[in-house]
Amino acid sequence: MDRTAQLTARRADRDIAYDPPPAADSPHAGAARVLEENWTGTSTVPSRGLYPHQWSWDSAFIAIGLRHISPLRAQTELETLLDAQWGDGRVPHIVFNPSVPLDAYFPSPDFWRSSTAGRAAGAPRTVQTSGIVQPPVHALAAWLVHRADPGLSRARGFLTRVYPRLAAWHRYLLHRRDLGGAGLASVVHPWEQGMDNSPCWDAPLRRVPPAPTRSFRRADLDHGAAEDRPTDLDYGRYVRLATDYRDGGYADGPGMFAVEDPAFNALLIASEHALAGIARELGATGTARHARAERLTAALIDRMWDPASGMFLCHDVRAGGLIPERGVSGLIPLLLPTLPRDIAATLVGTAHGPHFGLGRTTRLAPSYDLLGEAFDPHRYWRGPAWFNTGWLLERGLRTHGERDRAQALREAMLDLAVASDFAEYVDPYTGKACGTARFSWTAALTLDLLHDFEELMDSKGGNRE
User: pTM for this one?
Assistant: First the structure.
């Protein structure tokens, strides 16, 4: 019996005294139940209603949490996603479940037409996917999953099988997506960056004529309030960008929307460091990976660091120059271990200052500047706080020695995750649940934070829950 079954099973009448199972209402058991409910047999959906397929960066975060209760399922999660990789190396942002009705989610497989429109780019013929990508958290996830159970990983040849696919994924981003010529990856659609509706995209999106509203039907409004979701105008622009990319055979180039994003590139750098660890495990040195990560870090600072803002800003490749909007994306490079000390200290100050209010006016870091004109505490990525960005910031704080602040953030995330029934996102001020409930990456990252908290308590001689 793996740990998932142990956590979700009903308690026996007589527990074994020396190994009692956790209480049925414990955070561990609650988070494990969410992941069990959303497990399809080969992967985990973000939520059964709003997101009924497999999402790329969701699966990476889900695997990071799953490794604590079922390393086998965590490995399977990543392997299923990478089985849908395209010939050019891209990992698609959605892998569609053929048993889900087409009208359950838009854009659906018949919109993307991956097996035909993506033929020149090597789209798989046996599975339907989208044609765009999401942030590259996957190598970091694979390395953490391996370390959770190295024996199982080696016995299954997990790293041997995923390493070439992850290397191809990074090559795609570093070559096909270097649209600005600075060595960094660009996103060609707001959905690729993951923070879909951020005000950081407003200026570059104004160049995009929206698709007519009659040309698509928004399935997201069946599951969420319109005032919390992107507007019809923005959604029309999303559809236009995706349509043009599809009709161009998913060929990469500086179209109407091309942006270098700090979080996307910071996650690529973190995953390059992880690939170096995987290479060493497989008998290589990993030196070239670390060197590439250092070059990318230097390029990130040169291209996107804004001392006046005290954080990284998005770079508009098409128009040239930084986009003067403070999104949580600009704090995520704190994750990088070799970030210069002065920049790391400034990022910590910005996160806890008036623009994000972390630990002062907000419980979790908002997705957008509290003082920005477009701030909305409930509208998708325009102010609400998300657990995956919180998890990345918590790791960044720990990486740079801010242990007390990291511990405060960890405790706030655990409290809000349980209180909100593992909500998709929350009001940064009040912690009120927003979006859909029982969201997979919230549950998975709760498990990861609980694991770290228990290790910390053990090291201090404390008591576990």
Answer: 0.93
